[in-house]
Amino acid sequence: MEFIRNHLELSAKLSDQDWAFFSSRLIREEFPKKSLLVKTGQVENYLSFVEKGIIRFYIPKEEKNDITFSFTFDGNFTSAYESFITKTPSTYQVETLTPTILWRLSHADLQEIYANTDIGNTIGRLAAERIYLETSKRELSLLNQTAEQRYLNLFTEQPQLIQKIPLKYLASYIGITPQALSRIRKRI
């Protein structure tokens, strides 16, 4: 669990008392590959830290052309965040792409952390800011860059995507068909 504290302390120093309170609320869970963590229509109940694994966020489509819009990797927080903070049903699904280990906080436990620690609100704000910045960056890339530029950016910004994610999900993530991605890969 110390790796979670180390991750949090990249942004803000935690007292031993705050860490003890925070860590006492964490629940460790393991999930096999292809586990649905959140289904469309289900309320997200957890904010989770990924110890190990890859998680995909997508909108399921009947034609088998799901729209993948995000991934989370080791060492990051993950959640169907809109559903988590509003306690409303999720409009998308969250699944593991690899065997995954999560450290989870329930919504109620997170509220207790906010209320009973000096650092809780800072951690929550920083997590929300990170989610906002990632979403904004993705939206801008979809509006301002070609598919080829978005694919090339993956090499420099997120090389783990290229190495560990099936091409059909990568294609969906950058907003093109698998066939179009194949053509781009041949040109490069």
Radius of gyration: 18 Å
Under the CATH scheme, the architecture of the largest domain is Sandwich
Number of helical stretches of at least 4 residues: 9
Secondary-structure-based class equals: alpha+beta
Shape, per Cα inertia axes: globular
Write down the secondary-structure element order: HHEEEEEEHEEHHHHHH
* Percentage of residues in strands: 15-25%
Number of strands: 8
Descriptive report:
The chain has 188 residues and is α+β, with helices and mostly antiparallel strands. The chain has two domains: 2-144, Jelly Rolls, CATH 2.60.120.10; 145-188. The protein is built from nine helices and eight strands. Helix 8 (167-174) packs across helix 9. The model has no long low-confidence stretch (mean pLDDT 91).
